[in-house]
Amino acid sequence: PNISVALFPAGLTALVQTQQTVMAAVGEEAHLNCQLMQKKDVVQVTWWKPEGDKTLATSSKHFGPRVNPDFIDKVEFKDAGLQNNSIVIRNLTEQDEGCYHCLFNSYPEGAFIGVTCLTALVQTQQTVMAAMGEEAHLNCQLMQNKDVVQVTWQKGSPEKEENVATYSEHFGPRVNFGFIDKVGFTKDAGLQNNSIVIRNLAEQDEGCYQCLFNTYPEGRLTELHEPILHVRESNSPEEAVVSCSATGRPAPTVTLRVLQQDFHFSNYSSVNVTNTNGTVAVTTTAVLSGYRGNSTEIVCAARVLSGPQIEVFMMIPEVKQSSADGEKHFQTYTFRD
User: Fold this and answer.
1) In this protein, which residues make up the domain named Ig-like (predicted)?
2) Among 5, 171, 182, 251, which has the minimal tally of Cβ within 10 Å of its Cβ?
């Protein structure tokens, strides 16, 4: 499934950045985001699905965020801003698949349009409840036919992700050493539809389990590496140039924000570079204005599809004034989480 590119009416040069691909599990949530990369006087953002000509929601300068009655239980705003806007589609079904348009209606230019297409690719039970001492059956099904070479089960926690078991084309089912007495594959486990059993349930077995379908030639369906924040001085003493890079598969969404109200970002630009291994490096750059020598904290956030977001924080310290030339200077910083 491919998505999206930004589409623009003739004569308009502003850029709308969207995710390149959104894949999510049936029954879970999908996060769709659109960002207007140039500052415009936007009066309303409209989310629209051409299939069936459905207007899902609007966020306007005068009336705020509004979800249309037919979608109140399905759609909500995550960020209802007029420059950066995102919605959440809840409890995904196959009927939610398709392309979604975000329209930034500005005055006097007209509309700037971004397109994102959603694929409900992996179906899970979402939540499994079982009694202590009994068994829990976890299942994942790939909804599109792919050349899967391995299915990997992971258990996630705030501290780390543990590989529980793998089921591969060449080696069959294998349970990792620490889970041999705890986890087993069901008899019907395969590469398109895979199930495990967690035996003799205890409190420490609670948590979120991920199933990863490793495909050829696509590789792992999702991948995200740590973002890198970089700050350098601008031509103006009251500005700084901030860039953040993140590498993932498919292309990650990389956003910048500043926590103090007196500061703001402008002049956004974004560059995508596709690596030989199929991952994409995305670098978002913006100018931080309002910098008058005071400390401020900036945040870079990276996300692939509707997966977990990785954030990197950096405190820009106060500017030091040079006695030699009387000008303000600050160090160039690079921060890696």
Assistant:
1) 1-102, 108-222
2) 171
